[in-house]
Every structure is written in structure tokens, then in C-alpha cells.
Write a structure and sequence with these properties.
Blueprint: E1 6-17, E2 20-31, E3 35-39, H1 46-53, E4 60-65, E5 68-69, H2 75-81, E6 82-85, H3 97-102, H4 117-129, H5 145-158, E7 163-167, H6 175-190, E8 194-198, H7 202-205, E9 210-215, E10 218-224, H8 228-237, E11 242-247, E12 250-255
Parallel strand pairs: 3-8, 3-9, 6-7, 7-8
Antiparallel strand pairs: 1-2, 1-4, 4-5, 9-10, 11-12
Helix pairs in contact: 4-5
This protein binds adenosine-5'-triphosphate.
Length: about 260
């Protein structure tokens, strides 16, 4: 059962895809007001884990959101409490950036009701936060990969949820916008929000409070990003092809040459 500080608790979570087991009974907790990065090799099961936590995949076991079993939380409550940014999300290409972001307000709106002043304010704030306000009238399909990602990020922010799940949120973002994303996550966490992000950029992932290392559909490690044991687990899951070093007060993961070359 989840503790009082638990934003998400995952209990013996199993997922099969295409008839094959992908997640093999995962137990994991995410504390409120913390940022956790989920890392691991390609195909390890990171996206599957995040999707199952969002209630987007059939699974066995339990997921608790803010202390309540996900299965018992009405869809509208869930959509208000948990915002989702998926990987390579398609569709909605003909909608403007503004209207896409307004989709994030749907959980707050009555059926077929016009957007309220609060909805419009949330959308403007979200688009300004991701610096996408200037192209609010452009269709999503006309935007570059990075511009599109900033609109989808704005849609997730517009929900104003307590828990944000983001799968590869840095995809297509240039370094300044990656840095802005980092500032944004830190601001969200300082407001008490909980952020869980799947990241391939290990240097960025190590900026989080906690790291979850996934390998072969299991949790290889969960620990603080400053903990040397976490660094060793990260190096091990990538076959020691990366090494974690301290640089100017931050942790960085640098590529290592293969032993065989
Ligand atoms: N729809 C599906 N049907 C069958 N197998 C799937 C399906 N989706 C994913 N898989 C498999 O499940 C495993 C986990 O996939 P998942 O996308 O969760 O990995 P990941 O850790 O997020 O990988 P990546 O870093 O490459 O994004 C992979 O072996 C993948 O091939």
C-alpha cells in the first residue's frame, strides 16, 4: 500500500505486449514533489512502464495514483491529476498549436462547454512557458520537430496536474530549450508537483532527484542521482560503455570505448 508521501506506487506490475511478457512484476514508488528519471537500454521497457502507470496499457498488478488505486479513479479525475506527454505522438496535425494546448484543459471542462477564462489563462501560460506562444495560430503539422514538441509540452503543462509523466520530453529540443525544460521541471517540483521522465540524455537524467534504472523489464536500481551506487548501476546497465563523472558541480555520463575495439 502507498505511504502518505506517495504520488505513484506500482505494485507487482506485469505487462505483456504481442503475447510476450515485457514487464515482469515491477514494484516501485515515486514520492510527491520529486523528479525521477527513468533510464535504461533500448527495449528495456521504460515506455511500457510509463504507459502502464498512466493507465494506457492493460496490466496486472496495481498502480496507485495519489493513494488511490488507478482502477478506482474516475477517468476525469485521473486526467486532472496526471498529465501525459507521449513519445512520437501523432494526430491533431490540422489543429492549431493553441487548440492542441487547449486539449490539455478538457479534463477541467464541462461536456461541450466553451473554454473559461481560467482555461485560456492556463493555455497562454503554458505556451509562453515553452516559448511556443508566437506560433499559436499555426497548425501543428506545419511546425518543426522541436516546435511541435514544445506545443505538446505546453499541452501537458496546461493540465496543471499534480503528477506529470513525460516520455522522452527532450526529443528534438535544441540545447537552450533542453536547458529551459530543466528549469521548468525544477520549478514544477518546487511547487510540489511530481515529475517522472523517461530520458536517453543521461547527463540530463542525472540532474533529477532520483534515477530508476530499467533492464529487461525489471528494475535494476532506484536511488538518488548523487549516490555513487546509482552511478555504478547506470554504468553497469550500459555495459560500462558510459562512465559517470563530476564536472563543475554536476554529474555527467561520458562514453567509454568498447573493450573489444
Ligand atoms: N505493441 C507491441 N507489441 C509487441 N511488442 C512490443 C510492442 N511495443 C513494444 N514492444 C516491445 O516491448 C519491449 C519494451 O518496449 P518499450 O518501448 O517499453 O522499451 P523502451 O525501454 O522504452 O525502449 P526505447 O529506449 O527504445 O524507447 C521491446 O522489446 C519492444 O520491442
Amino acid at each position: 500500500m502507498p505511504g502518505p508521501d506517495s504520488a505513484i506506487q506500482v505494485c507487482h506490475l506485469k505487462v505483456s505486449l504481442g503475447g510476450s511478457p515485457v514487464l515482469h512484476g515491477i514494484d516501485l514508488g515515486f514520492q510527491s514533489g520529486r523528479w525521477t528519471s527513468v533510464v535504461g537500454p533500448n527495449g528495456a521497457g521504460k515506455s511500457t512502464l510509463l504507459k502502464a502507470m498512466a493507465g494506457l496499457l492493460p496490466h496486472s498488478g496495481d498502480v496507485f495514483l495519489l493513494g488511490r488505486s488507478l482502477a478506482s479513479v474516475p477517468g476525469r479525475d485521473r486526467a486532472q491529476q496526471m498529465a501525459w506527454l507521449g513519445q512520437n505522438e501523432g494526430g491533431a496535425d490540422e489543429l492549431t498549436a493553441y487548440d492542441v494546448t487547449m486539449l490539455g484543459r478538457l479534463p477541467h471542462q464541462a461536456w461541450l462547454a466553451a473554454p473559461s477564462d481560467a482555461d485560456r489563462a492556463a493555455v497562454e501560460q503554458a505556451l509562453r512557458t515553452t516559448q511556443a506562444w508566437d506560433w499559436r495560430s499555426r497548425p501543428l503539422g506545419h511546425l518543426s520537430g522541436g516546435e511541435r514538441q514544445r506545443v505538446l509540452l505546453a499541452r501537458a503543462l496546461a493540465v496543471q496536474a499534480d503528477v506529470l509523466l513525460m516520455d522522452e520530453p527532450l526529443a528534438n529540443l535544441d540545447p537552450p530549450h533542453q536547458s529551459d525544460w530543466l528549469d521548468m521541471v525544477r520549478a514544477l517540483v518546487s511547487e510540489g508537483k511530481t515529475v517522472v521522465s523517461v530520458l536517453h540524455e543521461l547527463g540530463m537524467a542525472l540532474q533529477a532527484d532520483e534515477l530508476v534504472v530499467v533492464a529487461d523489464g525489471r528494475i535494476a536500481h532506484q536511488g538518488a542521482c548523487v549516490d555513487p551506487a546509482t552511478h555504478r548501476a547506470l554504468e553497469a546497465v550500459f555495459d560500462h560503455r558510459v562512465a559517470v563523472h563530476a564536472l563543475q558541480g554536476q554529474w555527467v555520463a561520458l562514453p567509454q570505448k568498447s573493450q573489444t575495439t
